[in-house]
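Please decode residue identities from the backbone states below.
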């Protein structure tokens, strides 16, 4: 027997609601927010209800893809499924996971297994910095090892940091409080404790996801698709699929010429180097390199900058060949 996944989704969701709304001819256009997508069917949150919609045909023809986090306008036509008719201009957009209109990137970092990787953290922080998205660091597994070295680096740069023990929930409430009123995304390697933290931030949501997994015939719930959960008034959060180190490139690249600006603490030193086009790597009279050598900026952050700069130049050379 062939099971149509779309049908399954409708049945476990708000199918009666969908029918009811389609019968209300008066409701021609309606605003909502995309909170999930599966097999081309979008879950759209409207006044604490979820409706299921398809993308407008003309969007598909033009290659415009609505993504999770988009604010959209729906069009209800008689006896058909609602259609995403218009997409509000995005405040920001990240490629992987595809998410729009994010206020806060929550970098979830485990203090051990897997160990923190400064290069990855600095790359992610730089990407969000360049997109104007606030970043916070949440260190997990502090019952097993402390993350003080990393905490110091990122607090020193001005990032807000938190520590949680997901085995007891210690520290999770402070994180939850910080998310209120924002759209946030938990981001980090597989196994760092994103889903565990989510259990404290939104216990009712975690329960619901496992129910859905059961009905879809999946075993244990794994985070496959990105999904925004409404966890309070004006508060949405996404538990994103974990990434492997290789996949990190897909978060998007920062051009080499803009990289230094994406390291927030570098700004004090930019513009004063001997050469106007200083790359801040080996040049004589480079204020940034001098600051790193004198310990005024973190060695670890400067090293990440140098590596990311080399990577960016490499990619740019390959692209123009
Ligand atoms: N000891 C300890 N284990 C944790 C902590 N947070 C998560 N874990 C464990 O680490 C593993 C991965 O956690 P999970 O939340 O699935 O990570 P995700 O892949 O980022 O969603 C699980 O076995 C969790 O029980 C923590 O704070 N302390
Ligand atoms: Mg997970
Ligand atoms: Zn320089």
């Amino acid at each position: 027997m062939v099971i149509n996944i779309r049908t399954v989704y409708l049945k476990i969701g708000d199918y009666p609601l969908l029918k009811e709304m389609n019968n209300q001819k008066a409701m021609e256009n309606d605003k909502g927010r995309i909170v999930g997508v599966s097999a081309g069917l979008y879950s759209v949150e409207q006044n604490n209800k979820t409706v299921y919609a398809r993308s407008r045909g003309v969007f598909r023809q033009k290659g415009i893809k609505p993504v999770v986090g988009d604010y959209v306008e729906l069009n209800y036509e008689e006896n058909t499924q609602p259609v995403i008719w218009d997409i509000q201009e995005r405040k920001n957009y990240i490629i992987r996971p595809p998410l729009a209109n994010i206020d806060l990137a929550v970098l979830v970092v485990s203090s051990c297994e897997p160990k923190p990787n400064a290069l990855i953290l600095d790359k992610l922080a730089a990407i969000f910095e360049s997109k104007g998205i606030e970043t916070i660091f949440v260190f997990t597994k502090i019952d097993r090892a402390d993350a003080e070295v990393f905490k110091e680096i990122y607090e020193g740069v001005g990032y807000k940091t938190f520590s949680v023990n997901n085995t007891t929930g210690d520290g999770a409430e402070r994180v939850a409080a910080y998310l209120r009123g924002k759209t946030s995304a938990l981001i980090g390697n597989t196994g760092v404790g994103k889903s565990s933290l989510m259990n404290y931030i939104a216990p009712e949501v975690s329960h619901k996801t496992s129910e859905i997994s059961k009905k879809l015939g999946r075993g244990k719930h794994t985070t496959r698709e990105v999904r925004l959960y409404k966890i309070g008034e004006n508060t949405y959060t996404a538990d994103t699929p974990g990434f492997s180190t290789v996949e990190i490139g897909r978060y998007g690249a920062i051009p080499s010429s803009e990289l230094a600006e994406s390291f927030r603490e570098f700004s004090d030193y930019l513009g004063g180097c001997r050469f106007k086009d200083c790359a801040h790597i080996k040049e004589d009279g480079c204020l940034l390199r001098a600051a790193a050598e004198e310990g005024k900026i973190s060695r670890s952050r400067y090293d990440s900058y140098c590596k990311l700069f080399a990577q960016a130049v490499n990619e740019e050379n390959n692209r123009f060949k």
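Observation: The chain has three domains: 5-87, 93-246, 254-319.
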